[in-house]
Amino acid sequence: MKSRALTLAILLSNSNYVLADNDDLDEFGEFYGGDQFIEIATGLKTQIHKAPAVASVFTAEQIKAMGAIDIDDVLETVPGLHISRLSDAYQPIYTFRGVHSSYNSQVLMLINGVPITNIFTGNRNNIWGGMPVESIARIEIMRGPGSAVYGADAFAGVINIMTKSSQDIKSNEFSARAGSFNSTHGWMTVSDSIDDLSYSATFESHKTNGPDNIIESDAQSLLDALTSTLDVPTTNASLAPGKINLGAENTDIRLEVLYKDLKVRAGMQRRDNVGSGAGLAEALDPEAKLKSTRINFDINYHGKVDDELSFDTQLAFFKTSSEIKNQYTLYPAGSDSGFDSLGLANALGLPSGIRYPEAVRATPEVFEKHTRLNITGLYSGLTEHAIRFGAGYHLADLYKVKESKNFGIDGNGNPISAVGPLTDVSDTDAVFIRETERSNFYLFAQDVWAFAADWELTAGVRYDDYDDFGSTVNPRLAMVWATSLNLSTKLLYGKAFRAPSFTDLGAKGNPVALGNANLSPEEMETIELVVDYHADNGLGVVWNIYSYEWRDIIIYRPVADAIIPTKVAQNYGRQTAFGTEVEVNWKASDNIALRANIAYTQPENDLTGQNVPFIPEQQFYAQLDWKISNNLSFNLKNNYVSQRKRDKLDPRANIDDYWITDFKLSWSPAELPIELAMIGRNIFDVDAREPSINNNGSVNLPNDLPLAGRNLFGEIRFKF
């Protein structure tokens, strides 16, 4: 405790978070200051203090300096953004400003400007498996609505990951890392150019057994306990206490080829032997092994009609899957799956004592492909105007669905045997979702108008038309005032929408979450005030306040008088919030730079009048970068998460606050092409946990979802 207090005292004596854009550390001179540019706010390269958005930027050098291994290590440092976890495979839930949902479909993630949203559930993939950072040149994050530029799901926030080009790779590199949880990670980056032709390639391989945290009690523990209180045969099937299942074997490949104005990019992410976390049904599942293959390919051409009109065209293809290598065990062998413990046998008029001697097993799989065609124009022929406009088309195809299981009803309406081989219900009415597709056509226009000295107005609108749920229009307005040489003031307004996923529209087979074909998109309107101070002496401060209204939230509501407890997706929820964020960065000396940010949010469920559960109402982050000598550097991070409340029906105490402290120590021997580093995460071995959900007061994981304890890694980088 004294060590953590000392760490915090050192960091608190200084300050914050920075948005930097320079590949060279330059004794921190450019690392934390200078003219930083972003594109995420408007699609145009803009100085960040003039951009009509609240945004953060991380370069490859920053990502490396902080010791980030996965993209989540970077995103957790953004003010107002917290990463929670889902029990199934510990999928990340990127919670922007209190906008939280299990599938996290209110956040848009892009790779080189191309969405990687899966239409099945609206997230990035149910078998995400993490994303390593060695192929990343730059990450831009926008907090707040972005549908006027990006369309669907640019709702609470947008994350754009830009991969390394030949210009970003200054020298070829072969590197390796190993450490806790029997983890190994190797990667190689190469680039070259010949006249007008250049290329870059990155290969990464990662393998881990995952943390060995213990789940003390799970969903099956609850079912076992219920049978002991009823006049039915008791069960003792739970595998708890037991370890979470978070192993993985990942491969990432990125390739980019540039010839004059033509750019071609390709990528492959292979996730294999991914563990099921705390279980799909919140019952421990140590044997499940999941896999996913994600392939992206895009062709980009930049052309000029004349000096005043240019255009960009893009054809992009994305293919993704969620597959089962070794079947899900929803409930372990000997479970009654709720037939007795939850009263389902009585409700259905079935005899008690129904058991699953070989466990409740299933293999739900989905396969998708996405094709996008976009054309964007930029016209600068009007004085003081930059007019951006364009159109696009997106075809999303859930082209294959597979499912085998040993429970429920088969395609002929007959009960499925609980023993023996699984029954294949693919291509029958009994499958959990049907194969289908969706098309979307859109138009957009945006004008950045410098209408007076030191004043700039950005106005934009986008029209999206979907063939399944209809059309939507989303505008934006932003006024940016260069109040003084070092001060900018911004007033921002934006509207956004979240498209219903195919699960929302058409899920079946699971009475707990049935789809509804008549859903409308979720909507959000946000207004923000931003003050950005950027001095020449190395000090920068950004302060913002915001308010939003989130309406037509898709939630699953109980169906009255249903024999089996049933919930159906409906546009029913409404949430409002007020919040503020402060970011400070300070280059204290030529060798020391400090960052800090603090975020406060107060979201309210307007239907209940209660504060929104699960999300941290207060967050604090502090970071020290110290260049000890020309060859030795040190990074220290401290992240504080606090004030997370439970749902009003949850009988448990509020979730404990936690501090997580990480470090990286790097040494580059003089005149040698190598770099050695040690990375430590959660170095004080804090028992940090993310909240588990409750179902109408029933809690399957009463002790929440434990995060990794202390873990250490050694790293070597070799340049050639």
UniProtKB/TrEMBL annotation:
One annotated GO biological process: siderophore transmembrane transport
Location of the TonB-dependent receptor-like beta-barrel domain: 291-668
Keywords carried by this UniProt record: Cell outer membrane, Membrane, Receptor, Signal, TonB box, Transmembrane, Transmembrane beta strand, Transport
InterPro entries, A to Z: Beta-barrel_TonB, Beta-barrel_TonB_sf, Plug_dom, Plug_dom_sf, TonB-dep_rcpt-like
SUPFAM superfamilies with a match to the protein in the record: Porins
Subcellular location: Cell outer membrane
One MF term in the entry's GO annotations: siderophore uptake transmembrane transporter activity
GO CC annotation terms, alphabetical: cell outer membrane
Gene3D superfamilies: TonB-dependent receptor, beta-barrel domain, TonB-dependent receptor, plug domain
Segments forming domain TonB-dependent receptor plug: 50-158
Membrane topology: Multi-pass membrane protein
Span of the signal peptide: 1-20
Domain of life according to the entry: Bacteria
Family matches, as PANTHER family: HEMOGLOBIN AND HEMOGLOBIN-HAPTOGLOBIN-BINDING PROTEIN 1-RELATED, TONB-DEPENDENT OUTER MEMBRANE RECEPTOR
Family statement drawn from the similarity comment of this UniProt entry: Belongs to the TonB-dependent receptor family. Hemoglobin/haptoglobin binding protein subfamily.
Protein known as: TonB-dependent receptor
Source organism of this protein record: Saccharobesus litoralis
